[in-house]
Structure formats: structure tokens, C-alpha cells
Amino acid sequence: MKRCLFSIFALLLLISGIASAMPFGWRPIDAVFPSPVRDLHVDPRSPGVVYALTDSGLVLGSTDFGTTWEPRNTSPQTVFSLLAVDSSRKETLYGFAPDSPEGSNSIWISGDAGRNWTFAGSSPGTLRSIAPSPFIPGLLLAATGAPGSTLLISDDEGHSWTDIGIQSDSASPIWHSTAQWMSFFGVHFSDDYGKTWTERSRKEISACGFQIPPKLFSVSKAGVFYSLDQGRSWWPINQIANDTIFLNPNNPDQILIGTSNQESTSDPPILRLSVDGGKTFNDWNSGLVHPVTDCVMPADWMFLCVQSGKVYAYNETRADLDSSRRVDGGDLAVLSIAFGSRSGDPLYAPDADFNADGAIDGSDLAILSSLWGHRFYYDEPKTPGDFPMNPAGTK
Ligand SMILES: [Ca+2]
Ligand SMILES: [Ca+2]
Hints:
With 395 residues, the protein is mainly β. The chain has helices spanning 2-16, 329-338, 362-370; strands at residues 27-28, 37-42, 50-54, 59-62, 70-71, 82-86, 92-100, 103-110, 118-122, 127-132, 140-144, 150-154, 162-167, 174-177, 181-185, 188-190, 198-199, 207-209, 215-220, 223-227, 235-238, 244-248, 251-259, 270-274, 282-283, 292-299, 302-307, 310-315. The strands form seven sheets. It has a four-stranded antiparallel beta sheet with strand order 1-28-27-26, with no helix packed on it. Strands 2-3-4-5 form a four-stranded antiparallel beta sheet, with no helix packed on it. The protein is globular and about 65 Å long. The site of one calcium ion has 8 residues, from helix 3.
């Protein structure tokens, strides 16, 4: 009888769409970091791998989508202010240290996920971003610190650098390739691996989505725009002022936009999610208090962000109770077994108590139904290299 009532209740919830319960929301992760976290990085070719850089220059790594973390450079002689993932090679990272035993503005490379580091060279100035080519090992773009940030290029893992001589105060260099090699910095683009640059765009390009057709994004106070013709023309996504955009490297439909510098810290942070490639956005800031300074998406419907130096997770995969990588009837079956139980009961299943109130009831069912049909992809990441491009590895 209990099962019968439950089924009717579940059916009602799922069909009538009255699933108004809050989704999971952002929650601080359990891991303790030795100092505030500066930023996060995913390796798009290694599902589950996430790196964090702290204010003290420590590199931490996770191989389970940010659930557990371990320090990697345990006795750092150098304090990194920048970290970058070289996705052209497994477990390869770059670090930048303003000061180190090897001198100022030093570039370091690790081939074992941040455990051991080798001095690679020095840059002509302080760097504020490094962009390793996702296709050609050792080819780097970098931007020097503001004001008047200029673009540098290295084709030998940061040993030697060339100043390209173009400036952009706000943009970071990015790589983009689909049918044709492209890289962008501010309003400039290059199609010869960064050797020569041409001014093309009227908007500073903030991010790129590896997809077909190729999509570039520009984020500004005027709103969010995208381009499908490599920056020649731009189309508005919305007219909301934003200054940050975070893409899912393996799913071009999932886009986060937000504001990292709010004028008043008493305002709720601005973070919005699109799961339809930017057609529509919904607020995605439940559980956040401070402006978000960085976000990564290590898998579909799985988000990590940094606010005030702390790492928060928005992990909807918890609803996938039977680990089928999709929220569906299998999970409903698991929840139904525990339905009606309370903490301490033999049937009580903590994993199914989504709102952690010690009872598995309609509220948990409502959360499950609000996530109904979500798919989580882990094993088959799409990478830039999966798309047609000029012959790989040739310059
Ligand atoms: Ca499932
Ligand atoms: Ca509950």
C-alpha cells in the first residue's frame, strides 16, 4: 500500500511539474585548503581532473571532479601566481612565479600533474594569463600584467618569448580551432599559430566554445554576444552587463555568465546558467553570498566555483543514486525503497536524503523530479582535437 501511494505521488509530481523544491544549490566542499583558493582549472581531456591554485602558491589536484583534493607541490620553493593546463599532453601544467630562486618572472613546467616542476625560462614581464595551445605541445600565448597588457608568444615551453606588440587591457589570449587554426587576443586574431596578428573584431573576445559551427563569446557591460564567423559579426545573447563567462569544455550548451566585481558586496552575486547554448539563462547563485571569481565545469551539471577564496560545488550528480549517469527511473526506484524512512531507520539512505533533513520524503522526491532527465557525461569527453582542423602538430 505504501508503495502504491508512493507511485501515485511520484507520478503526480513528475507529470504535473510541481517540482518547486530548490535544487541542490551551491555548497562549500569538505576539503580544507591551506590558504584561500585563487582559481580552478580543468583538464578537458581528463574527465574528473581539477586543479586549484591557492594564494600561497600551492597547487592542489583532484581526480574525482573536485570531491577530494591533495597537495601536489608539497614543498614549493616557488610561489606560483598563475597556473595553466596544457591539454595537448597528459598531466602537463605550467606555473608562473613572480619571484623564485631562479629569478623574477619565471615559468615552470610539470609533467606529472603538478608534483614536480622544472624551471623553463623567464618572461620579459609579469604575466597575468598563460594559454597553452591545446594542440601543439610547448606553444604558449601569454599576456603581461596591466596596464597596457601586451601579448607574448613562446614555442619552447616558455624558455624564450617574443613580444607580439599588441595590447589589450581586459582580454586574455585564447586558442580556438575548428576548421581552421585561430587564436585571439582582444580584438586581434591570428591564423598562423600566433606569428602574425590582424585586428578584426569590434569586440574583445572573452571565451571560445569548441563546437561546430565555431562559436566565440564576448562579454561586456553591453551584454553577452557570440560570433559564428570568427569575430567578423556579432549577435546578442542578452543585454545584461557581465564580466565573466565560463564554458563547459565538453558541452557547448552549458554556459555560465556572471559578475566578479560587484559595486556593492551586499548584493547577491550574479551568476547565470544556460543549458541551451545561450538562448536562455537562469539564476544559478543559490547558496552563494559573495561574487564568484572563478568557475569550472568538470562534467555536465557539475560545477565548482570560488567565492572569497573558498571552493563551492553545485553537484547534481548526487541525484544519480544508481550511478547510471542519468537521473531517471532507476534513481526513483532507489529513493522509493527508502521513502518514508528517517535517520536511524534500517532503510534510511543518506544519499537519497537530498536536502539532508534526516527524512526521506516528498521534498527529496521533488528535488529528484526537478533534475529528472539530466545526463552526466564522464567517459567520452569531446576535445578540440575531435573536430576537423588543419593537420595536427604541424606549423
Ligand atoms: Ca540514475
Ligand atoms: Ca530529506
